[in-house]
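Researcher: Please predict.
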Amino acid sequence: MDRETVEKLCTHVIDSAYAVHVALGPGLLESVYSLCLGQELSLRSIPFEREVSMDVHYKGITCKSAYRLDLLVGRCIIVELKSVDTLLPVHEAQLLSYLKLTDLPLGLLINFNVPRIKQGIRRFANFPRLQPSSSQ
C-alpha cells in the first residue's frame, strides 16, 4: 500500500472520529465510541476490523492472541481508542508496540474524553515500510 492511500484512510478515520465526537460528546465508555466509530466507518464504506487478536512471536515461540487491536482500518492503520481524563505515556507505548509488532505504517491514538476531539488525537507513523506514492 502506498503512503497516499494510507493518508487518505487516516483522514477518513479522523473525520469519522470527529463526527462521532460532535454527536456524542465526551464522557462515555470506550466501548460506546468503538461501536459508533465502527458504524461511522461503515457508513463511509471504509474497511475495518474490530477487536483484532494478534499473536506475538518470540525466539521460536508464539503467544496466541497476546494482544487485541481496537480497530484495524484498511489493514494498514491501527486505531487505539481511549476515554480517559489524560493520555499517559503507557497509552503511547502500547500503540508504538503494536506498530512495531505488526510492522504496519500508521497508528492513531484517539481519546474521546476531551472537549474538542482535535485535542485527543495522536498520530504515530512507521512510514519507511510504505511504498512511495505513484506521484513521487
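Model: DSSP finds three helices and five strands in the chain.
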